[in-house]
Structure formats: C-alpha cells, structure tokens
Amino acid sequence: MGYRKLGRLSGHREAMLRNALVSFFRYERIQTTEAKAKELRRLAEGLVTLAKRGDLHARRQAAVLVPDKEVLKKLFDTVGPRYKERAGGYTRIYRLGPRQGDAAPLAILELA
C-alpha cells in the first residue's frame, strides 16, 4: 500500500504535510479534510514512536519532518513520555461531515 498524493506535486505535498504536522503537535488537534487527516495520522504515529524512543538519533530523524524546534521539544519532552506504555494508536479521527463550500469531507485529527 502506498500513500495519498492529495492532488499535489511531491514538493508541495511534503511541505503541506510538514506544516500540518507542526500545527498538529503544537495544538494537539487539527481540522482538515478526511484524506489529509488519514495521511497525517500515518506520519504522526511514526513521530510519536520516535519520541517514545527519545534518543538523539530519533530526535534527528523527527527533525526532518518537524522543522520547528519548539514543537520538536514538546514532542520529545511531553508527547513521547505520555504514550510510553501504549503500543500504538496515539491519534483519533472524528468525521465532521461535508465542508460548506465544496462538500469535501472534513475531519478532526487529535492526540488520543
């Protein structure tokens, strides 16, 4: 199984997902379309797993996807230890229904 292209070129998609990840870990909750939420969940779960490890190599691997130092610190100092005993399933998706303008299905992605 691959990944969702989200109708964007690879550079745009990567930048959009990095920005969304920074916002997600800053506020621990984000509202977006269902497809983006599902793609963000893939990346966020991996980052929480890295944060649980907590070593320098994991921090440098996470820094590739989360360029904001303040958010990276929060991820490793707060979020990672919070899920130390959990073996996955760090996020949940709530479906909200269609968006007013274009009827795109909306969802909220949050830390469980």
Write up what this structure looks like.
The chain is an alpha+beta fold and 112 residues long. It has one domain (10-111): Alpha-Beta Complex (50s Ribosomal Protein L17, Chain: A), CATH 3.90.1030.10. It has helices at 10-27, 34-53, 56-65, 69-82, and strands at 29-33, 91-98, 105-111. It has a three-stranded antiparallel beta sheet. Helix 1 crosses helix 2 (34-53), helix 2 (34-53) runs antiparallel to helix 3 (56-65) and helix 2 packs across helix 4. The longest helix has 20 residues, at 34-53.
Number of domains as seen in the coordinates: 1
- Kindly identify the CATH topology: 50s Ribosomal Protein L17, Chain: A
Q: What radius of gyration results from the CA coordinates?
A: 14 Å
What is the strand arrangement across the widest sheet?
1-3-2
Gross morphology: globular
Could you outline the blueprint of secondary structure elements for this entry?
Elements: H1 10-27, E1 29-33, H2 34-53, H3 56-65, H4 69-82, E2 91-98, E3 105-111
Helix pairs in contact: 1-2, 2-3, 2-4
Q: What descriptive keywords fit this protein?
A:
globular; 112 residues; alpha+beta
Brief overview, please?
With 112 residues, this protein is of the alpha+beta class.
